[in-house]
Amino acid sequence: KSLKLCKNVWILLLKIVLTYARNAIIFVNHLYFKLSEDKAAICKKIQNEWLGANVSFVDQIGHYSINTNTLYILPDPSSVEEHEFMYADCLEQNGQVMLQVLQPQSWLKKLDQWWEQNESDAGNNERLYMPCIDKIMMELADVKTKIKDLTIAGLILCGCDGDGAYGLKAIKNQGGETAVQNPKECKHDKRESSSMPNTALDIDKEPKHKTILIEGNSDIISLTQWLKSIC
After folding, report:
1. 90 pairs with which residues across the strands?
2. CA distance 103 to 91
3. Model pTM greater than 0.90?
4. Residue 141 and residue 153: Cα distance in Å, rounded?
């Protein structure tokens, strides 16, 4: 039931993004999008429901130029064999936002260096899994320092531990719009799932990240309203 709910939330998020943020670039880095699934079926479903949307699976070694109106799906490490594991970096290249996937011998050294400097997340939890939300968000914030007219934004939904809090703060420090899902809306049958948005709010109080609800109410704006406000 919880797994189905999480999938539905992300499907709703994608639908809202593609409806109201046609010029936004969306990075999907989520364990429910597994490369073991039929990629053609995923593309067809997205394109059937949201006409005009392009889908790019970042699952091959190489460089990917970031273009508007495109959904970039990053690989989930739990869905591929260890020797096939891929990791995407976000970077600036010749004034363009890029994603790159390197050969294993290249990214392993680079990832180890980042890991040594960022052993714990903002909730003082040891990083036991990858990819890290912090890393991709911090890289995007760094790209903003090199492309001044770039518009960036970050959003954290429900999740465990404190990953993403440092990255969201980095995006905000570079003038990006930031938001977290209302922790009271985060629910899971078997474990606490509000620690990610709570940690982001705890470490960066002034000015605060905006708090959103998937549906919204009279007191808190909805995800739709937030996305429309940053477009």
Report:
1. 99
2. 16
3. no
4. 9
Q: What share of the chain is helix, strand, coil (3-state, %, to 5)?
A: 40, 20, 40
The CA-atom distances, in angstroms, between 176 and each of 27, 70, 154, 156 are 15, 20, 7, 14
- Strand 62-65 to 96-101 pairing: antiparallel
**How many CB atoms sit inside 10 A of residue 106's CB?**
13
Non-local CB neighbours of 226 within 8 Å, separated by 6+ positions: 155, 177, 179, 210, 212
Strand 96-101 versus strand 88-93 pairing type: antiparallel
In the block, tokens 């709010």 appear at 201
- Of 48-62, 142-156, 158-172, give the lowest mean pLDDT range: 48-62
Residue type, 22: R
- Assess contact for 71 and 87: CB atoms under 8 A: no
C-alpha–C-alpha distance, residues 26 and 48, integer Å: 18
The amino acid at residue 180 is: V
Mean per-residue pLDDT, 198-204: 91
Do 41 and 57 meet the contact criterion of CB atoms below 8 Å apart? Answer: no
Query: What does the buried/exposed string (b/e) look like for 36-56 if buried means 16 or more CB atoms within 10 Å of the residue's CB?
Result: eeeeeebbeebeeebeebebb
DSSP 8-state assignment for residue 120: B
